[in-house]
Automatic annotation (TrEMBL):
<dbReference type="Pfam" id="PF25975">
    <property type="entry name" value="CzcB_C"/>
</dbReference>
<dbReference type="InterPro" id="IPR058649">
    <property type="entry name" value="CzcB_C"/>
</dbReference>
<protein>
    <submittedName>
        <fullName>Efflux RND transporter periplasmic adaptor subunit</fullName>
    </submittedName>
</protein>
<keyword id="KW-0813">Transport</keyword>
<feature type="domain" description="CzcB-like C-terminal circularly permuted SH3-like">
    <location>
        <begin position="294"/>
        <end position="351"/>
    </location>
</feature>
<dbReference type="InterPro" id="IPR051909">
    <property type="entry name" value="MFP_Cation_Efflux"/>
</dbReference>
<comment type="similarity">
    <text>Belongs to the membrane fusion protein (MFP) (TC 8.A.1) family.</text>
</comment>
<dbReference type="InterPro" id="IPR006143">
    <property type="entry name" value="RND_pump_MFP"/>
</dbReference>
Length: 360
């Protein structure tokens, strides 16, 4: 039924040369495909033609390269057991997202009991030193003893207090609970647990990274930049992945590998759905657009007789027009010549229009 309708529509529309653009100089360098299709709005709606306006381009795709997603060097941390012990409880597994300070595992350690006893002893010494300081200080003020003895008592109090603070600092640093003889491993940053090396009942010490956490807020793309693009790509330029995630080129290697004839490119990208460390994909490198270039939806550009072509809205319908197109970036394509900003182009129903144009 649809093919019959298309034939009927074909019989109803006629082709005529496309009128010159209002600004004749804008497209003078590009050939214009002869033949405009006289179609009413109802006919175009029937075959599913929709339009979008061409927009002034600010950047263009320079090239597409394969990339690997990884966390940047300063966004990966290892969580080690500071005090040797035995894991009594694990609270996260590989792949879990964690927040900064979130408990990861509980470790039983005999040294925590020793630390607890040391805290109690230091607290007792502070209490004695404080009482002695108060008593001798009062006697010194009354002139009963020399002031030097009061100064010695004050120094002894400060020394005892410093020892107690050090004991408490060690306990706090490992999130320890001296009463139970355990301490808790916690996440130093927010991110995703990418590696676990412990399980309940296993011994741990400071030589093993119990967990590895990658920061979830940013990632790094690593690519081999072809030699032909090295001079065109600079730090600060934009990079875009196929799913629309955009980042910024952070560095371009200055040395060309003699085997691959490429240099290492690195780019920073934010976290987004589908961005997973270790994933291999591709990314488009973007640079400043030349004057006069416009952007259209990628679906607007089709191939007719081996030439990039678009269908432009006219007063009587549409007209096929040959253009000079650049590389597509995601769902958008850049047009260097043959189209002006503001002109409306067909973004759907282009296959039907191509069939009609081929019959006229």
């Amino acid at each position: 039924m649809r093919s019959l309708g298309l034939l009927t529509l074909l019989a109803a529309c006629s082709a005529e040369p496309e009128a010159e653009p209002v600004n004749g100089t804008a497209n003078a360098a590009m050939p214009v495909r002869p033949g405009a299709l006289n179609l009413s709005a109802e006919q175009m709606a029937w075959i599913g033609v929709r339009f979008a306006a061409a927009e002034t381009a600010t950047e263009i795709a320079i090239g597409t390269v394969p990339v690997t997603v990884a966390p940047p060097p300063n966004a990966r941390v290892a969580v080690a057991a500071i005090i040797p012990g035995v894991v009594t409880r694990t609270l996260v597994v590989e792949g879990d997202s964690v927040r900064a300070g979130q408990p990861l595992a509980v470790v039983a350690a005999r040294e925590l009991l020793t630390l607890g006893a040391g805290v109690e002893q230091a607290s007792a010494r502070v209490a004695v030193a404080r009482a002695n300081d108060g008593r001798l200080g009062q006697l010194a003020r009354e002139g009963i003893i020399a002031g030097a003895r009061a100064d010695e008592a004050r120094a002894a109090l400060r020394e005892a207090q410093a020892e107690l603070n050090e004991q408490r600092r060690i306990v706090a640093m490992v999130n320890g609970s001296p009463a139970s003889g355990t301490y808790t491993l916690t996440a130093p940053i927010a991110g995703r647990v990418t590696s676990t090396a412990i399980q309940t009942g296993s011994p741990v010490d400071g030589t093993t990274a119990a967990y590895v956490i990658d920061a979830a807020s940013r990632y790094e793309l690593t690519a081999q930049l072809p030699e032909r693009l090295i001079g065109q790509i600079r730090p600060g330029m934009a990079v875009q992945m196929g799913d629309g995630v955009r980042g910024t080129v952070s560095s371009v290697g200055a040395v060309v590998d003699p085997q691959t004839r490429s240099a290492v490119l690195r780019a920073a990208i934010p976290a987004a759905p589908g961005i997973v460390s270790g994933r291999s994909t591709s990314a488009t490198l973007l640079g400043p657009a030349p004057m006069g270039a416009v952007i259209v939806p990628a679906g607007a550009v089709i191939d007719i007789d081996g030439r990039p072509t678009i269908f432009v809205r006219t007063d009587k319908g549409v007209a096929a027009r040959t253009v000079e197109a650049g590389e597509k970036a995601g769902d958008r394509a850049v047009i260097f010549k043959g189209l002006r900003a503001g002109e409306r182009v067909a973004t759907s129903g282009t296959s039907e229009l191509k069939s009609l144009a081929g019959q006229n």
